[in-house]
Amino acid sequence: MSFRCFTGRYGERAARAGLFGVLVVLAAWSAAVSAQDLLWFEGGRPRVAAWQAVDILQNAADDGLEPEDYDAAGLRNVLTALEGGASLPEADLAALDGAVTTALRRFLADLHFGRIDPRSVHANFALPRSNGFDPAAYLRNAVAAGRLREAVREAEPAQPFYAGLRRALVRYRELADDPPRSALWARALPPLPHRKLQPGEAWAGTSLLAERLMALGDLPATTPLPQRYEGAVVDGVRAFQARHGLAADGVIGRETLVQLDLSPAARVRQIGLNLERLRWTPLMKGPRMIVVNVPEFVLRAYELQGGVPAVKVRMKVIVGKALDTRTPIFAEEMRFIEFSPFWNVPPSIAQAEVVPRLKREPAWFGKQGFEFVAGDGRVLTNLSNDNLEAVLRGQLRIRQRPGPKNALGDIKFVFPNNDNIYLHHTPAPQLFARWRRDFSHGCIRVEGPVALARFVLQAQPDWDEARIREAMDKGKSATLRLREPLPVVIAYNTALQQADGRVSFFPDIYGHDALLDEALRKRGPRKN
Prior knowledge:
alpha+beta, 8-stranded mixed barrel, 39% helix, 17% strand
């Protein structure tokens, strides 16, 4: 038979060398095994498990992985030849058996741990290689127990969003692979008649828009194609906007138009990138955990219930500006709460913003409750040019006293980290009404500080809501050490399946999707 259809890095050599040549190539990268140790073959023919194995590898795209990474098509071709009557010497069959084992082991490692080092794409997560998962031993045990398919699913990351996002990937792949529906994105929507399209206006793209919304499930499939932008189509756009982190007002502006023009194939890639992230995002290591999803501008506090993470608190957050003060992606443990905190102005902010403004507006010093602090702890409350120059030289620092103008609000949640990032309240809660909320210098402002404090202090029942509010309102700074450290993860997911089953997408505000996509495409040759 011809092996010109053998794919992967061995395809060209295999096409020239035939079946025996294929196996010589496989032997070069497979672990040597003897005939009695074969996992996948018996009597020179593939076992049922071998066919399951190549099915799993060929369906790797369902997890956002790439079947070509595991030479799935080539292995199936060789198995098909053996099933059709081809025979192999014992050494060659052993090499093929090792090739299947190596491919499955790689697949399990990629599925469980991810394919790249998260630190290479600005995520300061420790590699989860020490969690006890051994792909080689796991694979042997799964085959011996006759439960390979089930074991593969159990090797998925134990992340709350993984299974739902995987199902979403399958749905969007079906949409992208369906010619009539994917053709709806073959051309861009026409330009808007004005800067924004308001309900009730005429627009040449209304019918195409309605067809796209029906394909995506944001509009009932039986909706008549409209002549104007009104009625059910506006409702469909609102549903679409709500799923894409946009203001759900039914008005089509630039941001909404950009999201509407992204094809199902682009969404498939986006979902795949986020499945990769979930593989190396830290798991729950205890009964409770806080996760901030930066591009969604949302904080969730989880608690294990029956071994399953359940969302106990959910709130809006404000994160670092996309342009120049991005919130870093990392994981640490919360250890303190500061009530009525001082704000120690970071030197970069003091030098670039606060000192220049104080030179222009000296009265701002008193209005904001600022003071100077010397290296020995002395507090200086008088504003002078000498003191401002000392700040610029690093000899003094500026801090803001507790009070209604304090930039941290009335509470601060501290999880010590190299970037000096923390959660805190804000004196400007009106900003939580914005759909896009990247306004901070990097720290994270929380919408519901009391609800968050109650969750954090759950293990300290003497701190009830009344006592929390009293400490926040006291105007006197006080630090409370937590009895039990609480894991905090600052994550970056631009695609999630929500609790109601809807798939949500969020703008890639920091460009991390593009960075991860490039890193995955530029991966070097795979190693055994």
